[in-house]
Amino acid sequence: MKVLLLLGFVAVALAEVTRFDGEKVFRLRPRTEEHVAIIKEMAEGMEVDFWNPESPDLVDVDSDVDIHVNAAYADIVDNLLQQSELPYEVLVDDLQDAVDAQMDSQEISPRSHNYMKYNTWEKIEAWISSMASANPSLISKQVIGTTFEGRSMTVLKIGKKSSSTKPAIFLDCGIHAREWISPAFCQWFVNEAVSTYGSDAEMTTLLDQMDVIVLPVFNIDGYVYTWTNNRMWRKTRSRRPGSSCVGADPNRNFDAGWCTTGASSNPCSDTYCGSKAESEVEVKAVADFIRQNRSIIKAYLTVHSYSQLLLFPYSYTYQLAEHHSELMSVAEGAAKALRSLYGTRYTSGPGATTIYPAAGGSDDWAYDLGVKYSYTFELRDTGRYGFLLPESQIKPTCEETMLAVKYIAAHVLKNL
Ligand code: ARG
Ligand code: ZN
């Protein structure tokens, strides 16, 4: 009887998982305003999941547009694109195959935590506790809030303990649920920090002089949902009366030109800005924490994927940031350091001109609060796998990204 009940539960849980059989990802290259109009019409007429940019209103002439469409629409889209002579290619022929292929790591880790695999929230949560208890002289943890579904948001503060207050760098990962390489990087960073402290001169100086405060998964509810229900989920999982659509885009929910551009006020959109700035409890928790620690936080780093970009303010306006030239040269130095390892090319610049204007982002908000060194990373790749970056790329991606983060940190330290 118990076994039957259990089987029943498993069947129900499995039935809810979204599969992507026969679904495709197209890369469109609109060359004319007419092409742009066709893409926008397409987005209205059928269900299109925008991978890059994240919403149809951000589509522009001569920019790549990656969209994921249902199996039922795949042929229609194909025909439509051919008829309208809109240049395109098929990036992913069968999305379910790509989902199945992302977990390709053959690495067996001698340790309990495997940094070369994507880890469930359950594993990451246990890892947060064990990292803190195993490294008491270097790591302390603090709960900064609770997610909509009631999960604890815990930051790890890494640095040599000191009696005086130290300046700090805030690093978060996993604002967007489906960008799995991002939380993998935060875990990698913490492990590198504790295992190279004392042997690597740069890391040692950094952690002696400063603290790095790491939030490994910002949008935990969304991340869990990408494991249990829908791999392509982006937003939070908040529910509100009056709409059956779930969640808001946490990176459109910060109080920086909130919902003025590149965001949607439609709760069903993937770039929904929320009912007001900081309506999402996760955003409020992070913003409160940074406000409280405003005097010590010297840099804000946030990690997304994909596109291989190093962005800095502004995104809510085309105006150049007050510290534009310094931010640009640090970004270029960081991108150069990153490239030195495996030749991976990054593009640097302000969000608005480098990709598209989009308000309500954490980087702009932190910058306007007074955190000068505010950067958004968009990690690998440029679209071959997109959000489904294979596990075999976790190691090289994290290794090269470490070089960029350390470059920025060294600059921050030098300019305290
Ligand atoms: N792809 C990221 C997003 O759309 C880029 C963030 C850049 N910063 C910003 N404030 N829009 O959320
Ligand atoms: Zn993102």
Automatic annotation (TrEMBL):
UniProt key word Protease: yes
Peptidase M14 domain ranges (all copies): 117-412
Record EC number: 3.4.17.2
Cellular localisation: Zymogen granule lumen
Catalytic activity: Preferential release of a C-terminal lysine or arginine amino acid
Alphabetical keyword list: Carboxypeptidase, Disulfide bond, Hydrolase, Metal-binding, Metalloprotease, Protease, Signal, Zinc
MF annotations from Gene Ontology: metallocarboxypeptidase activity; zinc ion binding
Main localization (coarse): other
Keyword Signal: yes
Residues annotated as catalytic: E378
GO cellular component: extracellular space
Named cofactor requirement(s): Zn(2+)
GO biological process assignments: proteolysis
Gene3D superfamilies with a match to the protein in the record: Metallocarboxypeptidase-like, Zn peptidases
Enzyme class: hydrolase
Family label: Belongs to the peptidase M14 family.
Record protein name field: Carboxypeptidase B
